[in-house]
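quick one, 116 residues, struct below
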Amino acid sequence: MAERRIHAQERRKDRRIPVAARVRIEAREGTGVVQADLVDVSAGGLRATLCEPDGFEPGCEVNVEITVQDASDTRHPPLVNLRGQGCVVRNDAHGAALRFTGALSLRQPFSQMLLF
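---
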């Protein structure tokens, strides 16, 4: 009988896209707010490096605000400012992973965006 290897099932369903942006993460229980650098984002969540990782344990419900700035000229208003809610999946030396628990919404109207 041939040996069969069972591979660990990949949990990620959505493609990750690297994005340079700032993330504001606030614990819904009011235990803290941190600023973070976004590493990548997908339809299901994000990965970021937290400036102050303490207090955001796995399972912690958070409010998330993602601000995408024009990297070539930071004097302009943000191109996109998104808000949503999520849950901390992982928070360790490699960064934090959040799963979105709902759809992201625009905080500001499209008039702030530069369209090409």
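DSSP finds no helices and eight strands in the chain.
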